[in-house]
Write a structure and sequence with these properties.
Chain A: It is an enzyme of class 2 (transferase). The structure holds 2 protein chains of 2 kinds. By secondary structure, chain A is of the alpha/beta class. Chain A has helices at about 20-30, 80-90, 105-115, 130-145, 155-165, 230-245, 260-270, 285-290, 310-315, 330, 345-360, 370-375, 380-395, 400, 420-430, 435-455, 480-485, and strands spanning about 5-10, 35-40, 50-55, 55-60, 65-70, 70, 95-100, 120-125, 150-155, 175, 220-225, 250-255, 275-280, 295-300, 320-325, 335-340. In chain A, the strands form 3 sheets. Chain A has an 8-stranded mixed beta sheet with strand order 3-4-2-1-7-8-9-10, sandwiched between helices. In chain A, helix 6 (about 230-245) packs across helix 11 (about 345-360). Chain B folds into 2 domains: about 20-125, no CATH class; about 135-480, no CATH class. Chain B has 21 helices and 2 strands. Chain B has helices spanning about 20-25, 30, 45, 55, 60-70, 80-85, 90-95, 135-165, 170-200, 210, 215-220, 225-235, 255-265, 270-275, 280-290, 300-335, 340-355, 375-390, 395-420, 425-445, 450-475, and strands at about 125, 485. Chain B has a two-stranded antiparallel sheet. Classes of the chains: A alpha/beta, B mainly alpha.
Chain lengths: ~475, ~500
Amino acid sequence: MPYNIAMVSDFFFPQSGGIESHIYQLSSKLIDRGHKVIVITHAYKGRTGVRYLTNGLKIYHVPFFVIYRETTFPTVFSFFPIFRNIVIREGIEIVHGHASLSSFCGEAILHARTMGLRTVFTDHSLFGFADAASILTNKLLKFTLSDVDHAICVSHTCKENTVLRASLDPLMVSVIPNAVVAENFCPLSHTTRAPDQPLGSPHDAPMSPRQIGPDDPITIVVISRLFYNKGTDLLIAAIPRILASNPNTRFIIAGSGPKAIDLEQMLERNVLQDKVELLGSVRHEEVRDVMVRGDIYLHPSLTEAFGTVIVEAASCGLYVVCTRVGGIPEVLPQHMTTFAKPEEDDIVLATSKAIAALRSNKVRTDRFHDQVKMMYSWRDVAARTERVYEGITGDISPEEFYGYYPGQGWEASGDRVRSFALIDRLKRYYGCGVWAGKLFCLCVVIDFLIYVFLEMWFPRANIDIARSWPKKQPASNSRDATKSFR
Amino acid sequence: MTSPSSTDPFPPPIPVDTHPRRASGSKSPEFERSLPDPNRLAPEDAYFAPSLSRVRSAPVNYGESLQSLNGDSGAHIGSAAALRKRVGGAGRRRRRKGAWKKLLWVKQSYPDNYTDTETFLDHLQRNPRVRPYDFWPLVADSTVIVQHVCSVVIFVCCFIGIVQDRVSPVSIVCWGSVGTAVGWILWDNWIWKEHADSVQDRNGITGGDDNSSSDSFASAINTPANISQSDDSKSSAIHGLGLSIAGNESKENLACRSANFSESIDAVADLTAQSAVPSALGSSMGSMDASVSPNTHRISMLSPRNRQRLTTVKSAFLIYFSLLGLSPILKSLTKSTASDSIWAMSCWLLIMNIFSFDYGSGEGAGATTKFPASLSTNAAVMASTVLASRLPSTTHVFSLMLFSMEVFGLFPIFRRQLRQKSWTGHILLTLALVIIAGGAVGVTLSGGWAAAIIGSVLGSILTAFVMGGCSWWLISLQKYKNVVIGPWDPARPIIRRHWN
């Protein structure tokens, strides 16, 4: 059955980034599957009010005070009146929040639970446990997720992290990876094939793979923001050694950030300007055009929840060299990647190995695009997300959703299906910590009182119901992908 | 969430214990963490078995504890590692339909929220870098702090004695100077003995003679702070002066530096220049570096030693007299400030001195201190400058400043060197300081020899208890240490700075 879903996050277009495009792609594919989806975000400069995007995706830009890097000021309650209004107008059943640093998302999940709606949370990032900022963020996440119906993580490492940070039941956390729009990341030589032709089978590649001779130039592409946690220091240290030990090699580096100066200094000190091309920051649409100029994609990041960019690179037919951190080892199969430890020596070694492998034509990079297309698609992500929605709304039984293991003394316990009774919610929040638990309970009680107040002073009957965007008929095979999981 | 009953032979498929409510079930939280990962140190090691042998023998115990896990008694153990083994049966049964892989690119026949009990939180490490403390080494290390606190207490008591006219400032400064002179002679002997030892395997000796006369002012400000900083600025990064001789490539600088340093030891008065003109410190740093590094020419062994001693004495007297001249200015410098403010300020400055003092042993530990070591010395000197304005005469001011130079500037260097040279001497010095400080407090509070003795005894007992108590406290706090490390933490890049 179709659901009315509200995606809530601080991060959405016109700002561009991984979370933004995730929300957009997921929403539009969910709309394709027959659901109604709206996006609630804060007002960006020059972007306020209600907007429609392609496919009838409706965006509410709520005016809100932005404090830092497009994150709104966490006020806990002040978002409630307008949120309630939007939710009632649109007849929302499921609130789906994105990104743990977004205070909009956390508040929306709290209010939605108060209003008796099902909630889902998607975590896109990894956090440690050591520093003070992480501790604070983790407490807030615990507050957000204490009462959430289901959480989605983008990788298994991310799931482990979220389960630990928010003390969740692991069965209430699903792993649904990001995806790429493979059509936007085609290699140069790619020919569009007929849709009925089987994909990825070895005999259907029309062109012979490009042969790289032992002396042909190899181009290594790096596209990343030049920050410490993206491993720019490793990159700076490794570039001269890679270039010294591998003749006929050049670099293309796109991206900007605080470490750009260090990079330029290194180039000047080693006089490598003719071998390393710095492009500055590129727009997401241009990423493909940069990638197809290279043969190897080097990704020296120090932490990464999923690493969409390496999937994009592989889709462009690049051989990927990346550090074995975070969720990266789960993302691509062995034959597309060379892993390195986050050490300078190992990165140099791995890159040299990758260059040697390419020079000996051992790697069939021409098949990468079709293989990646098979692995990741937003259609698949939407189908798997839909199953989560079905699970939390009770359209598939809890036994099926959470797993039913007869004879093991294990039943789907009542607490996984989160009841809306205030006392049950308070119980869940109370377990969050000695002081934090009481504080969270106070917040929940106040939120409930505000809700009661709003129901009295702004009764539901006075709120107009918005008309839905006229939809085309949902695709007939929309449930097939879901069936395959059962 | 219902907590799974712990006696159940077939636990639920996902019993990884990360859920607080589940943890608060039948298991007692104390025992829940008793078997995290046998290959890693856990904080429990700190108080259950201090030796590392437990780690080595852990796999044997591990099997036994696993057996007990399957029985009824092991119900306490709820760590992920243990439970993973425990539910191995469930995992094996699942393998029939194709083993679950921790990969995202494979389409697997498992639901998205499937949690594999064998690999879930597999890479989780708890307290991987915890080094359990032992009691006695901890107590022994705390003597360094005790020494410094005692010397601060002695200084404060001396000041109170001077202000209340119980003690003559001249006698204090005389005793202090005698002590400093004795300390310097000892220190000088150690340095040159080591120097002589190290001179065999070295061709050229660097003498600082060409610069040393012009260095007199620079050397006057050779507080341990400056020296350690200039050391840090070198690649050898050795902390504290005496240690730089301990045998590496900086030997070349040794002669020069020790010369400078012996000057500064002798020229006690030199340091007053620092208090009067704090800004001189920064500028002198540069000249100090210049004097240390570039002089490389061959010179005979004994001659520079004596010559530098002579220069030291010369500059000592120079600075001594300039301090004498500055005393009236220092006396009236903060005279207009109310006494309340002076007491409060000096208290804070001395506390700052104690907290930012570099207690490191000098063996490469310098890089770990957060504050520059000069902060501590400067705070102490400023405290004494501020206090000096409450004194009645120029002689008093001069004596107090000189004494503070000795206590805060030179004494720490001597203590650090003594600790390196002889542990017995270090302990004896600690004992002496504790007794003197206790006695000084006793005299200050009520006066008379009896009070001094009572104070000494009480102070010693109290110090012993505090040292033991704090060490024990720190060890007992170790069990609350819970560092969780996993693949989600940002990796630490390992970079060789070869292109610098």
